[in-house]
Amino acid sequence: MIRRVAFAKAVIAGVAGAGAWEAAVRLLIWLGLPMFDLVRILGMMMFGRNAPIWEWWPTGMAMHAMVGAIWAIFYAYFFWSFFDLPPALQGIIFSLLPAILAGLIMIPQMDLMLNGQNTPLRMFAVGIGVIGPISVVLGHLIYGFVMGSIYVRPVGYPVGRHKLTYG
Prior knowledge:
By secondary structure, this protein is mainly α.
């Protein structure tokens, strides 16, 4: 089956979702909550634990935005056209897949890559306390809401309707 996907719209939706996640987490960190700071951890993998924010933040954010764009393209190809749900809800439901994979695979893998430079995160970031898993899931839900809200009827026709044929 060949699908038509609006790549630019998917990339924009994914980057916007990642940006919304980062904005929410950064605000909560500034308010004093010990959130799972994915962008900082990604930046620390490049520059080390004691790097200044102007080094780790742009790098970590670029990495996070790139992953957000890749997941949005996956969403556009394999998820968007299968369900007749409100777009934001569909994005939220989809975001549970990367949340589960991140919690079970990627976050523990980041522990290994950081090689003791950080408090051990463990699965779903439980190493930083109960807020770890909450912030992992919350970040993904924010991502899904924004991404789903932006990637709306990019091409083609709505679910349940068929293209008009002439002849």
